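Quiz preparation item.
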């Protein structure tokens, strides 16, 4: 799926599943990836509930992002990061699932990268896997920053509150965009 085709992929995938329900297991990874790229958290949650275990990159990232978002929205990290020295052990327990999932996804990316490194055209074949590993590292660092486990940001309540504020603004802009889209569709 291309970077600019998330909405189109979601529309096509939904249409295919409506037309051929027996294909839902094969199509659902496209639903999941489209949902997290569009920041459709409710849709992502629904699509992940119906997703049978998968090694798909988009599904794995969707699970990680939804876990992180749920922690941020629930305020769990916000409340704990304020008194972070007393609750470091609790934070590690809270993050263990997310960090373990990141490790599993990272391991899944290493296999194809290792195989690609032994062939001609290794750079072209391995580039997407290196990029994915970079994305996983960025997600891991973000989790550490938001939880206060990163030494340079310990006790940084402002970074968490800024993220929550940004998430609320994105949700509002998304709603406004869908309203404008529906209005422009009815006026033509």
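Solution:
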């Amino acid at each position: 799926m291309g970077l600019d085709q998330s909405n189109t992929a979601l529309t096509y995938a939904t249409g295919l599943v409506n037309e051929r329900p027996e294909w839902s297991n094969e199509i659902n990874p496209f639903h999941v990836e489209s949902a997290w790229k569009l920041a459709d958290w409710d849709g992502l949650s629904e699509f992940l509930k119906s997703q049978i275990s998968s090694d798909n990159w988009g599904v794995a990232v969707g699970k990680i992002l939804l876990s992180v978002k749920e922690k941020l929205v629930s305020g769990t990290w916000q409340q704990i990061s304020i008194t972070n020295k007393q609750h470091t052990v609790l934070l590690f327990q809270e993050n263990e699932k997310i960090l373990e999932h990141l490790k599993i996804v990272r391991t899944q990316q290493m296999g194809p990268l290792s195989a690609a490194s032994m062939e001609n055209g290794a750079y072209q074949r391995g580039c997407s896997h290196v990029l994915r590993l970079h994305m996983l590292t960025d997600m891991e660092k973000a989790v550490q920053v938001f939880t206060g486990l990163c030494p340079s940001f310990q006790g940084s309540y402002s970074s968490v509150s800024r993220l929550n504020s940004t998430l609320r603004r994105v949700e509002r802009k998304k709603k406004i965009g869908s309203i404008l889209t529906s209005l422009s569709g009815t006026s033509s």
